[in-house]
Amino acid sequence: MLNKTITKQDLATQAALQLCSAAMDQAEKCGINICITIVNSSGRTLASAAMNNAPLLSQAISHKKAFTAASFGIPTKQWQERLAERNNTLLALQSEPDFTFLGGGIPILLQGIVIGAIGVSGGSEQQDIDCATIAINTLVS
């Protein structure tokens, strides 16, 4: 008989809140104000935080970063390299409202399977990536 359902693992809400807190802790160490969005594997927001004085656009950008990372299972910055010679594809993806190639969106993997993603915005691209990476690393420690 053909299976008609699947079982899927997703990031837990408590883990999403922990990620937000860890990303903010790192941002404070860097002296920046960021927005963070955590989504599950389907792109649904589990947690979101905006530090005081974070740029206003950073909230929407952090969501795009998380959604893009969850959608494709790769860090958002990788799109810069992947699309460097593919202008038509880049233009098509840029017209999608929830896509971004700005660094700071990272998928969260469990045994190679995407269970969620984090998006960070408000610092430089590298600071956003660092805040997201350090936050993810707290889940494993």
Brief descriptors of the model:
4-stranded antiparallel beta sheet, 5 helices, single chain, 19% strand, 141 residues, Beta-Lactamase, alpha+beta
Please provide a brief summary of the model:
It contains five helices and four strands; from the N terminus they run H-E-E-H-H-H-E-E-H. The protein has 141 residues and is of the alpha+beta class.
Can you put this structure into words, describing what you see?
There is one protein chain. This protein is α+β, with helices and mostly antiparallel strands. The protein has a single domain (13-140), classed as Haem-degrading domain (Beta-Lactamase, 2-Layer Sandwich), CATH 3.30.450. It has helices at residues 13-30, 58-72, 78-82, 87-94, 125-140; strands at residues 35-40, 45-50, 105-110, 113-121. Strands 2-1-4-3 form a 4-stranded antiparallel β-sheet. A hairpin with a 2-residue loop joins strand 3 and strand 4. Helix 1 (13-30) packs across helix 5. The longest helix is centred in the N-terminal third of the chain and has 18 residues, at 13-30. The chain is globular, with a radius of gyration of 15 Å.
- Unreliable residue stretches: none
Question: Under the CATH scheme, which architecture would be assigned?
Answer: 2-Layer Sandwich
Multimeric state: single chain
Q: What overall geometry do the principal axes of the alpha carbons give? A: globular
Question: CATH H-level name... which superfamily?
Answer: Haem-degrading domain
Report Rg: 15 Å
- Strand arrangement, major sheet: 2-1-4-3
Strand fraction equals 15-25%
Largest sheet: number of strands, sense, barrel closure: 4 strands, antiparallel
| Coarse structural class | alpha+beta
CATH topology: Beta-Lactamase
Number of domains: 1
End-to-end Cα distance, whole Å, is 42 Å
**Quick one: CATH class?**
Alpha Beta
Number of strands: 4
Total of DSSP H or I helical runs spanning 4+ residues: 5
